[in-house]
Amino acid sequence: MDQQAHILILPFPAQGHIKPMLSLAALLCQAGLHVTFLNTDHNHHRLTHREALSTRFPTLHFESISDGLPTDHPRTFQHGGDQIISAIKSVTKPLFREMLADFGRKSELPITCVIADGIMSFAIDVAKELGICGITFRTFSACCLWAYFCLSKLIEEGLQLPVGGDDDMDQMVTGVPSMDGVLRRRDLPGTCRRQPDDPLSQFFIEETKAMTRASALILNTFDDLEAPILSHIAPLFPKVYTIGPLNALLRSRLGDDLSLSLSSSSSLWEADRSCIKWLDSQPLRSVIYVSFGSLVMLTHGQILEFWHGLVDSGKPFLWVIPIRRGAGAEQEILEELQAGTGEMGFLVDWAPQEEVLAHPSVGGFLTHSGWNSTLEGIVAGTPMICWPQIADQLINSRWVSEVWKVGLDMKDKCDRSTIKEMIRTLMEGRGRGEIIRSMNQLANSAHVCVREGGSSCHNLEKLIEDIRKL
Ligand code: UDP
């Protein structure tokens, strides 16, 4: 076991960031490295399986730090995203500096490397101040990262923000290398729909620029998936490690059982496993799985449109409706919907998603195109219908439908008849065969790259070796 290397991993406090970063932590611990995983106090207490993880990975330790927000703050991007960002800067940053310095003074095992979330650049700056190597891990897709890198130039060249309103949203955006002819105004990252001086828009642009101060970049993607885009990003960093899809890499290195248990242990909500029994009773590839991740919130009206669209499609469905997570809907709506759905569908408030996607009854995935969900869909070989709402989801869905051709993009529409038609097309339409063929190829490359000798497997080994040398 390596006695020197000690990595501190700091995710942004959201499910889609914690999960891939905890997967990386497990892979580093599996290789014998020491890892301190630093969550905010709020999320630390919600990771209820921490002790089991530390028992399984004895070199994995959990610590927590204040996010600077009052206990009753909703901590959602929709309600106070700018407050989350400013509290992290004003409260978490100085505490982090103190904590990191203390590790140097008091611990037998000082931190030798900080791996910070790609939107937590302050941690890279603090690490550099203290003479510690800082690596940035952007948990989004490379295509979204590249669009962010090009955004300032696009604005200088005349791109008017926000996009939307009376704009022709199907107009192509030119000037982003390797995206010409694909990227429309509609597909630009979610912040482009906000005013240019909006704090969240500023934050993402500034954080992207700040990432280049890091000693290296880690991405949860794989070379075969985003090669043309990666060739533009690589020169911006001393080193780039593409180590995705992390869930497949975990499975290949730790085996199915341990990787699935890690997946559920990195969840901020307890999954309702009763849906697996329901799936067991459904015909092969018949079910459409519907989930919009941990951040997207639906209005009452949108919930009803989806419900009608799903029922009218005539396909059985498993739907994650995030009632308990403070969505705009009330508990009664869930009960009413479940009663109206009868045998045809199954509603849960959080599902064991990776297990669901791998279940033989599931034939399609109606998703918000969050990056983890997109990769999990690819790894399971499940074709997708995309209903993106924010952040990188808008560009990911375009790549799913137009570049990789493994799904359909329902962007900016939410009416029952479109939903019904999309589901029928994906599940039984003439185009399904072609989508399935592309998906099988992509799923195959995802599995090959995480095996011995594959690009992501090789890059993980290189990362471990480089960290050991620090
Ligand atoms: N997820 C889950 N159960 C659910 C819904 C989501 O385990 O019912 C997991 C999913 O497997 C994924 C993560 O939550 O790993 C969501 O990340 P993603 O990047 O897709 O979306 P975000 O939540 O960041 O919008």
UniProtKB/TrEMBL annotation:
Its EC number is 2.4.1.-. Gene3D superfamilies: Glycogen Phosphorylase B. InterPro entries: UDP_glucos_trans, UDP_glycos_trans_CS. GO terms for molecular function: quercetin 3-O-glucosyltransferase activity; quercetin 7-O-glucosyltransferase activity. It comes from the Eukaryota. Keywords: Glycosyltransferase, Transferase. It is an enzyme of class 2 (transferase). Pfam families: UDPGT. Belongs to the UDP-glycosyltransferase family. PANTHER family: GLUCOSYL/GLUCURONOSYL TRANSFERASES (PTHR11926), GLYCOSYLTRANSFERASE (PTHR11926:SF1392). This is Glycosyltransferase. It comes from Morella rubra.
